[in-house]
Amino acid sequence: MPTMSLSGSEPRAPLPALIQIDGLQKHYRTRSGESVQALGPIDLTIDRGEFITVVGPSGCGKSTLLKMLAGLIPRTSGTIRVNGQAIDGPQRDIGVVFQSPVLLPWKTTFDNVMLPATVLKLDREATGARARQLLDMVGLADFANRYPNELSGGMQQRVAIARALVHDPAVLLMDEPFGALDAMTRETMNVEIRRIWRESGKTVLFVTHSIPEAVFLGSRVLVLSSRPGCIAEIVDVELPAQRDLDVMTTERFGSYTRRIRQHFQARGFIE
Ligand SMILES: Nc1ncnc2c1ncn2[C@@H]1O[C@H](COP(=O)(O)OP(=O)(O)OP(=O)(O)O)[C@@H](O)[C@H]1O
Ligand SMILES: [Mg+2]
User: Fold this and answer.
1) Which of 15, 113, 179, 188 is the most exposed place for a label (fewest CB within 10 A)?
2) Helix, strand or coil for residue 17?
3) What number does the ligand 1 atom closest to the CA of 229 have?
């Protein structure tokens, strides 16, 4: 007797992890021909919607990790998969924000945000509408026609964030994006970037030198060892999803920052 198909109730194959990193390593070759092992091996699974922060000593390979994830430099060994697809070359589904905003000074805020539309040959009307929405989201709706030198450092960095999101990538990579900002602007930007993350549903990987910033922003903090950077510890941050700066005064916040600071103190990276 033929069996009845119950396709509606058949278990579905689980979705692949958003980012799957296996045995990832990077060796650079210096001009004098020496090989420098900069990173790895790294194994890491990142799920959709996570906010991962990365801390580690200077020169341990944090930027190298981000550049390989963005497909901007080749790997030496290992694999990176985004949505199950191996990465080889720049990815459309990834947006990147660097330490300095790198805006084109002769273009307005709006046109700077629209740059990926030109590079990726996107529909200008639809992308233009999205650019306006993003400028609104980062609080710059009234500055669309201003030029970069008419904006503060924090505003320029917000333009760079809007630009990284304009093609609607699933993943946002940020390499010390607030490093050059003063302490107060930086705190404001931290609250802002968490709000943008919650509203946009993106997956974020954020590199920082600041332990409090890593704990405030992250749902997980990746603590890297010195070069070649390997994952020394992963700290799950159990703080409320909706965080304001007051969370930094709580005992729990203090216990996370202490734990990470002690990790680096024990290894002589901080006093
Ligand atoms: N193009 C390159 N050629 C040779 N060595 C490089 C190159 N780029 C980086 N390195 C080396 O690789 C290591 C990791 O560099 P990377 O820029 O990833 O570190 P980082 O963790 O981002 O440091 P920082 O916190 O100071 O930004 C460093 O020792 C650096 O000297
Ligand atoms: Mg770096």
Assistant:
1) 15
2) coil
3) 21
| Cα 39 to ligand 1 centre (Å) | 9
Residue 71 has pLDDT above 80, yes or no: yes
Centroid of ligand 1 to alpha carbon of 227 (angstroms):
9
Domain ranges of the chain: 19-26+35-93+170-271, 103-168
Ligand 1 atom showing the smallest separation from residue 99 Cα: 27
- Residue 14's Cβ-count burial label (10 Å; 0-12, 13-18, 19+) is exposed
Which tokens hold the place of 84? 């199950």
CATH dotted code for 19-26+35-93+170-271: 3.40.50.300
What is the spatial distance between Cα 65 and Cα 144, in angstroms, rounded to a whole number?
Answer: 33
Which atom of ligand 1 sits closest to the CA of residue 39?
Answer: 14
